[in-house]
Structures are given as structure tokens and as C-alpha cells.
Amino acid sequence: MKVKVTQRQSLADLAIQVYGDIRAVTDIARANNLSVTADLEPGSELDCPDVVYDSYLQEYARKNRINPATGLSELDEVQARIF
User: Fold this and answer.
1) Of 9, 22, 39, 78, which residue is most buried, by most CB within 10 angstroms?
2) 46 burial level (CB within 10 Å; 0-12, 13-18, 19+)
């Protein structure tokens, strides 16, 4: 599956959004040949492997359209928008 990166999203944010589980960070990074701490470009599309860590949390994240974006803002302040 492909996922479009939104502003201020990290791999950890995408792991929660797609899988409902932070453990997916390494799988997403590996699938896209990225470091787990890579800065992501808004609008880019990343491959997300077909993996299930916790089907309940994964379904919850999808149904509730959880779209976290916890990166730094233009003002270098943390702008936590988890839910």
C-alpha cells in the first residue's frame, strides 16, 4: 500500500496511522530505503508493507482516521496533533 506523507509527519506517525503500532517504523523505513529518523517530504508517497502487528489497533486507526503529525513546525516548536 502507498501512503502520502502529510506536513510534519515522521515514520513513527505513519506507523501509528497505518498499523496502529510504533513497531512498524522499521518495516516502513526498510521498504523505502530510509533511516528510521529520516525527515519526510510532505506530499511524497511511501510504500507500507502488508504487515499486521495488532489487528484491533490497525482497524481502530483506520476507522477513526488517525493521522498523527508530531514533527516540528516552521517555528521549531513541537506541534503535537495525534488525534
Assistant:
1) 9
2) buried
Contacts of 53 (CB under 8 A, 6+ apart): 19, 20, 21, 23, 24
Contact predicate 66/13, CB 8 Å:
no
| Amino acid in position 51 | V
Euclidean distance between CA atoms 4 and 33, whole angstroms? 16
Report the C-alpha gap between 30 and 39 in whole angstroms: 15
pTM (predicted TM-score) = 0.76
Rounded Cα distance, 22 and 78, in Å? 19
Strand partners for 78: 72
Cα angle vertex 66, ends 23, 73, to 5°?
85
What are the phi and psi torsion angles at 2 (to 5°)?
Answer: -100, 140
